[in-house]
Each structure stands twice: as structure tokens, then as C-alpha cells.
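#struct-help
A.M.: can someone run this one for me? Single chain, 107 residues.
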Amino acid sequence: LMIIYGLGFIAVSVIFVVLYYHAYRQRTDLDLNEMEVTDTRSSVQSHLLNIGVGMLSILIVAVGGQKSPAWAGMIYWLIGPLQATNGVIMGRRRKKLEERARAKSAV
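D.P.: on it. C-alpha cells below:
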């Protein structure tokens, strides 16, 4: 059951990665500014982290013993710290871009 859940979780995240990556590839046609490109990259990274957690969960079930489904479920708790870290890192990048944009508009 945890394998099915993990596959579904991964599938949803893959769909978002594909959508955001497509937008990223079309950034010139969409006329995305630097902040929008950074936000798009942040979203791709966010969903790739989710895919990694889902894959780890499936791996735990696949190689673990009878108690592995419990651990495979608890591994999803990693999403919080991973997403928080990604948010902090990408938030700092975005803040620098905002400061640079403010400095340009002040000139």
C-alpha cells in the first residue's frame, strides 16, 4: 500500500515538475522577469525534493522488513524541513533580486 501511495505522490510531483520546467524553458516567450524565473526554479526544486522523499519511501518499503511501512510513512515528515530549507535558500535569492530591482528603479 505504501508503494502505491509513494508512486501516486511521485506522479503528482512529476506533473508539477514538467509544468514548471516547461514554463522555465519558455521563459523568453512568456517574458518572465528575473524574479519570476527564480520563483519557477524554486517550484521545480521544491517538487524535485518531494520526488526524492517519495522515492526514499518506496525504497524503504522495498528493502525493509515488516516494520518498514511505518518508517516509509514517517519519512514523509522530511518534507517539512526540506521545503523550509529550500524556501529559505530561494527566499534569500529572491530578496537579492528584489533589492537589485529596487536599486535599478531608484536610479
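A.M.: thanks! The first helix runs from residue 2 to 25.
D.P.: also worth noting: DSSP finds four helices and no strands in the chain.
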